[in-house]
Amino acid sequence: MQLDTAYVRILVVTNYVGLASTVLAVRYKWWIDPLGAIVIVLYTISTLARTVMENVKQLIGRSAPPDFLAKLTYLIWNHHEEIKHIDTVRAYTFGSHYFVEVDIVLPEDMLLNKAHNIGELLQEKLEQLLEVERAFVHIDFEFSHRPEHNAKV
């Protein structure tokens, strides 16, 4: 739910409940007005709490669903015939879109400018997807190494 939608709903509900509780309090019992205020406060708090939780879920970097990762993998594999291996495909939430991280393996003897062009075109292709905010493509010539960047002494 968008914050604007939640805000409009809160305004509509609070106006109707406030008006109704005031009219009912004047006509029947005085305590209906404070009861209406309590209902308004509880509704406002619960609506805003739900909105906050939805936004937090989008901001904490949750992994993309498997079908989206499969779509990315398909696009990557069919991007260029010289891609020998797909080492990693990650996508995680960044707001309402995804950050995508991809590690591909190209031939060891490929010229740097050709490898760069393949990676850059893949990045641009991934960033054209509506769901993708930003894509990062890492190019390597093998995939058997460990992913750490520890310096060997």
From TrEMBL:
Gene3D superfamilies found in the cross-reference section: Cation efflux protein transmembrane domain, Cation efflux protein, cytoplasmic domain
The organism's place on the tree of life at top rank: Eukaryota
Transmembrane intervals: 7-28, 34-53
Topology term for the membrane: Multi-pass membrane protein
One cellular component term from this protein's GO annotations in UniProt: membrane
SUPFAM superfamilies registered for this protein in UniProt: Cation efflux protein cytoplasmic domain-like (SSF160240), Cation efflux protein transmembrane domain-like (SSF161111)
Subcellular location: Endomembrane system
Main location class: membrane
Nucleotidyltransferase as UniProt keyword: no
Molecular function terms from GO: monoatomic cation transmembrane transporter activity
Sequence ranges assigned to domain Cation efflux protein cytoplasmic in this UniProt record: 71-140
InterPro entries in the record: Cation_efflux_CTD (IPR027470), Cation_efflux_CTD_sf (IPR036837), Cation_efflux_TMD_sf (IPR027469), CDF_Transporter (IPR050291)
Homology family: Belongs to the cation diffusion facilitator (CDF) transporter (TC 2.A.4) family. SLC30A subfamily.
Name recorded for this polypeptide: Cation efflux family protein
Species assigned in the record: Artemisia annua (Sweet wormwood)
Lineage, top ranks: Eukaryota, Viridiplantae, Streptophyta, Embryophyta, Tracheophyta
